[in-house]
Amino acid sequence: MQHSPAEPAARAPEAAPATKATAPDRERWRCPAALRVKSAVLAAAGVAVALVFFPPWFGIPVAAVLAAWGLGMAVLGASVTVDRTAGALVLRVGLIVRRVRLTDVTAVLVDQAKVSIGRASGGEVSVYAWRKSPLDALLRVPAVAGDIGHGISSAVALAKAAGNTGPENPGPENAGGGWTAGSGGTPASARSRLATALLGGAGVLAIAGALLVRVHWDDPALTVLGVILALGLGAAGLLYLLVAFWILLTGRAPRITGAR
Known about the structure:
This protein is α+β, with helices and mostly antiparallel strands. The chain contains 6 helices and 8 strands; from the N terminus they run βααββββββααβαα. It has 2 domains: about 25-185, no CATH class; about 190-250.
């Protein structure tokens, strides 16, 4: 008797090739509407205070700057955009827009709500995303600094890997960068001298404003408010000056760590 050849065993269905998840070409993080409303309210209050308690030659320019800031935040808001196709990082805070090439980024540092970006051709750029005060926590503003830092870090790594990295163009892993969460103060070598000068200038302007506040009113309530405003501006201006001098002398921004 002739035996028929054994039939081949049924083949198991081939598994589909695993697809590697890729990041989108464009990522954007926008500040919530609560921050826009808060900025508009604070700007409106600042305009009223400037027009009431300061002399016109000082109060009108201050009110104009505050109005422009509040309007820009209310209409445009704040956002962080990572465009991998264009190879650019765009930071917007109201009317102020900063554009950074991904290949120029040397470090991405996350410190609580602050995202600091070191650049090869310039100083450090920082943005808060988005919760940075107890009021923001009360408004349930999300804290997305870690997500933004991770997104920027991965985009920088891909941009430098696609640009034939070498000794002349180091990647983020050998440029002293990468994404570091919860690190300490930022070295002054990566911090813009212009930013430090602006911090000191803001301190001088606050102290000058404290000296110009009108504190003599027929209404006792306005007198008390004027005194409180003058003391607050003077203390803030002195603090700004001390922080600016600290950065210049020690090379690091001061950091206050609370008990956990």
